[in-house]
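The instructor's notes for this session suggest beginning with a concrete chain rather than abstract definitions. Hand out the sequence below and ask the class to guess, before any prediction is shown, which regions might be ordered.
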Amino acid sequence: MKNGIFLGGGGENYAQTQWLNLKYANRHGLIAGATGTGKTVTLQILAEGFSNAGVPVILADVKGDLSGMAKAGRPDFKLHEAFTARATQIGLDDYSYHACPVTFWDIFGKQGHPIRTTVAEMGPLLLSRLLELSEAQEGVLNIAFRLSDEEGLPLLDLKDLQALLVWVGENRTKLSLRYGNVSPASIGAIQRRLLVLENQGGAAFFGEPALELSDLMRVDADGKGQVNILAADKLMVSPGLYSTFLLWLLSELFEELPEVGDPEKPRLVFFFDEAHLLFDDAPKALIDKVEQVARLIRSKGVGVYFITQNPADVPEDVLGQLGNRVQHALRAFTARDRKALRLAAETYRENPAFDTEDAIQQVGVGEALTSTLQKKGIPGVVERTLIRPPSSQLGPLAPKERVDIMRGSELSGKYDTPLDRRSAYEILLERSAVAAQAAETAEEEAESAPMAREFNAARRYSGSRVTRSSARSTRRPRDSFASAMSDAVIKELKGTTGRRIVRGILGSFFKGR
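After discussion, reveal the predicted structure:
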């Protein structure tokens, strides 16, 4: 097939080749199977195929194995003979080794170019998902975002949001009259979650320079699509950050890319490994968002491929949109496993040559059941398929090789140095400083006014002479220890206005404006 990606051999004795038609590749797909059955290799050969066709790819490298795509395979590799034998068996006559153009990315900036976005671009919905907020806490977060827009307070990094929440807490009485109840407990809960996120490395993700989507959609001088590999091995420790980042990226692509209808090949393909992390314990509102993006983003020329152990990990409404499927072996050890196996088999168009449910349990490593969209987008009959061997290196790069590729990248230096421009934190800090200075000036004037009045009253000028005032003090004598203490406390309080009374760093915002 001229406009397709070769998957492997299929049919009786594996004589029938299986292809993924690029025209229907933006209608999404699924790679499923138990651990160790070959899902990662299938992901690798699909990514190679898209890159060779000039389609940029984004994929998450959960185990660190996919970095080898930046290097060609070698004849001295231990599986070389097995690879060439399989290529001959499935009719891949032009099998050879070659590398793919690769760009490494890492949210933490260690194993790739840093990926950042601003808090404002993330938005309150995804951020609430990331922080696992309750409905009331999400409401407070939405108020903070609204105030950011109305007051001209850009939310770029975590400290901007933390500072704005402090200000919201200090002015919650006035804000509650306009927006509804703003609870100190809700603000405190959000701040604690932000602290946890910061400790997990989330502070590195929020900030500038923010990622430009065009840098993910590049094609090299030979016309090959760039393979963008996100280092996700450490990111998996923070599954909330991982899933929210990937969903944010999909949302950004959906919002920024123009409509292209049904192109001859996708503009971009997105591989979402460990897809169950996106859906586990996710609220219905978030699942609806994923379904909406998956349903509509194909019209932008973007294909989304979910990689997971069991198709049941993906919600049914999303699963129904995944037309291209590669099913590796599933094991059925429990009643629940057998039910999931049966449901997985029922999602395929039956092949009279074999029982799909039995075949899913029988396929070996590197073998799978495949079904891809055919003419007019009709699902093809499920076939047993020997997956083709990869052309790039199977397994990870050496650390030095990864560093060398990063240094030689066109993007080297573009995102490496973080920026910290004037935003909500700095603006609120400046306003609080102005308010504090105004309070101190008012205090000094208040302290000096009584002294000036006493001086003027004591020495009055009549034009020819100066006389002392005949006014008598109306102050009552101190008749008790309590009275003396009261006067002392009042005097002390007068001397501390704006200086000794403890204020939040962003307090008295309304007064300072």
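Then share the key points. The two ends are 68 Å apart (CA to CA). Residues 311 and 319 are 8 Å apart (CA to CA).
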